[in-house]
Amino acid sequence: SGPCFEQAPDLVAVPEDGYDLKGNLDQERLTYKGPLVGMHTFEDAALYMRGREIPSEDFSITDLMPTILGLMGVPVPEDVDGSPLC
Known about the structure:
By secondary structure, the chain is low in regular secondary structure. It is 9% helix and 5% strand. The chain is built from 1 helix and 2 strands, in the order ββα. It has one helix at residues 64-71; strands at 20-21, 31-32. The chain has a two-stranded antiparallel ribbon with strand order 1-2. It is extended and about 45 Å long.
């Protein structure tokens, strides 16, 4: 609930401690208990985007922030590296 409820994501996946989400949404399982793999990330650092508007190749990590800003309707500063993907 709240003033931004309509802008909330349809799905938020938060794994249990000791489990790790994997990036292939077309697999039968999204998570499994496995060995520690030395991931260098912080909790809540995963982003899954899917749709016809999002290209599946020819993009850079620098395109991520301008894409998120664009999807939120926030102007992208001129000095930002990268370009919105949609």
